Amino acid sequence: MIASLSGTVLKVGLDSVVVGVGGVGMLVHTTPATATSVRLGQPTELATSLVVREDSLTLYGFATDDEKHVFETVQTVSGVGPRLALAVLAVHSPDAVRIALGTGDLVALTKVPGIGKKGAERMVLELKDKLGALPGSAGQAEAVHLDTGEAWREQVREALVGLGWTARQADDALDKVAPLAADGAGVSALLRAALQELGR
User: Is the domain of 57 the same as that of 70?
Assistant: First the structure.
């Protein structure tokens, strides 16, 4: 098992990064928030989870061990694979996932593309006591500062489309969260705000 990676960022995608480790470029799938938090050419360290299939070895990376723990635990639910588990973390912070599961908040869980009401109910039933104690409040999304004025719009739009929303739905949500960008909100916070708008 590859539990973590430390190296230089060679490439940054929308939901993946390539980390150079000992002369080898390792492709790591991440949430959009984690991808935007690293910088090309700079050192980084990611907690990782290796998913082994008959025809593939896929590496998933996380900013914290807690994200990795939630990612791996969520997959113990029948029907939840690594891509859906990653989508959960793209929409909610680990603490928000704990709160949703602990309080049976199906609305919050079904905001994740790919999770319907029955899937959310199954997650609550199977995971309610598996992720630890509920925090006092939902974790604050980490601030990711924007490099240029409207750069956030394209990043968040691509993330929403990648998660299953149509381009038109994404654009409508972007218009609604634009004031937050003007106030200095980071890409991660803007993505979560847009997902909340789409979930209404």
Answer: no
